[in-house]
From TrEMBL:
<comment type="function">
    <text>Part of the ABC transporter complex PstSACB involved in phosphate import. Responsible for energy coupling to the transport system.</text>
</comment>
<dbReference type="InterPro" id="IPR003593">
    <property type="entry name" value="AAA+_ATPase"/>
</dbReference>
<keyword id="KW-0472">Membrane</keyword>
<keyword id="KW-0067">ATP-binding</keyword>
<dbReference type="InterPro" id="IPR005670">
    <property type="entry name" value="PstB-like"/>
</dbReference>
<dbReference type="InterPro" id="IPR003439">
    <property type="entry name" value="ABC_transporter-like_ATP-bd"/>
</dbReference>
<keyword id="KW-1003">Cell membrane</keyword>
<dbReference type="InterPro" id="IPR027417">
    <property type="entry name" value="P-loop_NTPase"/>
</dbReference>
<dbReference type="GO" id="GO:0005315">
    <property type="term" value="F:phosphate transmembrane transporter activity"/>
</dbReference>
<dbReference type="GO" id="GO:0035435">
    <property type="term" value="P:phosphate ion transmembrane transport"/>
</dbReference>
<dbReference type="GO" id="GO:0005886">
    <property type="term" value="C:plasma membrane"/>
</dbReference>
<keyword id="KW-0592">Phosphate transport</keyword>
<dbReference type="GO" id="GO:0005524">
    <property type="term" value="F:ATP binding"/>
</dbReference>
<keyword id="KW-1278">Translocase</keyword>
<feature type="domain" description="ABC transporter">
    <location>
        <begin position="4"/>
        <end position="245"/>
    </location>
</feature>
<dbReference type="GO" id="GO:0016887">
    <property type="term" value="F:ATP hydrolysis activity"/>
</dbReference>
<dbReference type="InterPro" id="IPR017871">
    <property type="entry name" value="ABC_transporter-like_CS"/>
</dbReference>
């Protein structure tokens, strides 16, 4: 069974039809890259996977989106527990103005974890998983804002992992980072997919080709083509996909 299945999903901002009849299956423990030119709906789509668009005024969504066998747009769904299962990391690192430690344990604390030893355990496990532990273990009580951009982004990944999600959504997680910090995040994504299902929006064709198993090409709110990354990049079946991945687009 796919981890996520999207069936005839449509999204409108007011009258503007931003996502059109999207059909997609996202496999467990794989990295799925969403690519396409600016404004084609990638961010809108990734936000719809944990109902972040619910927070925007004037949005109408119809269709079905299953997380395993649960339609996450069904009326009785608890959005807070959905977002616990489907975590998110944003484009620019956005740690809280708190210590490194407090950033990581923020979510678990809000969910009622009180035991100091349990919180310590969550902090260490999450920072290790985010490949940040060795760099910060001696300064957990220092401000997160003193970290480099790349470290801050790994901290945001640790903060998301602390909630033990099943799926990690990443909207252009390296666009604000230099090449070295970018490659560390890419290596991390490679490791994380053993335990998590990852969906990533990227503007970089090279990044999509390097790190993803599956690629979905969006254009003007539609999915034009999706499949194995290797295939999408070497022998796409749609001319528009070919133009985009070879850089001839627009
Ligand atoms: N809050 C909003 N209200 C109205 N229109 C919006 C809103 N957010 C996005 N849009 C529109 O929806 C379309 C898709 O935007 P979206 O940000 O999803 O595209 P994108 O592919 O992620 O673009 P980029 O690569 O530039 O981030 C665009 O035409 C955008 O202007």
């Amino acid at each position: 069974m796919p981890k996520l299945s999207v069936k005839d999903l449509n999204l409108f901002y007011g009258d503007f039809h931003a996502l059109k009849e999207i059909e997609m299956e996202i496999e467990e423990n794989k990295v799925t890259a969403l690519i396409g030119p600016s404004g084609c709906g990638k961010s809108t789509f990734i936000r719809s996977l944990n109902r972040m668009n619910d927070l925007i005024d004037g949005v109408t969504i119809n269709g079905e989106l299953y997380l395993e066998d649960q339609n996450i747009y069904a009326p009785d769904v608890d959005v807070v527990s959905l977002r616990r299962r489907v975590g998110m990391v944003f484009q620019s690192p956005n740690p809280f103005r708190k210590s490194i430690y407090e950033n990581v344990v923020y979510g678990p604390k809000r969910c009622g974890v009180k035991s100091k030893s349990k919180l310590d355990e969550i902090a260490e496990k999450s920072l290790r998983e985010a490949a940040l532990w060795d760099e910060v273990k001696d300064r957990l009580q220092q401000s997160a804002l003193g970290l480099s951009g790349g470290q801050q982004q790994r901290l945001c990944i640790a903060r998301a992992l602390a909630m033990e999600p099943e799926i990690l959504l990443m909207d252009e997680p390296t666009s604000a980072l230099d090449p070295i910090a970018t490659s560390r995040i890419e290596e991390l994504i490679e490791q994380l997919k053993k335990d998590y299902t990852i969906v990533i929006v990227t503007h970089s064709m090279q990044q999509a080709a390097r790190i993803s198993d599956k690629t979905v090409f969006f254009l003007m709110g539609e999915v034009i083509e999706s499949g194995d990354t290797q295939l999408i990049f070497t022998s796409p079946s749609d001319k528009r996909t070919e133009d985009y991945v070879t850089g001839r687009f627009g």
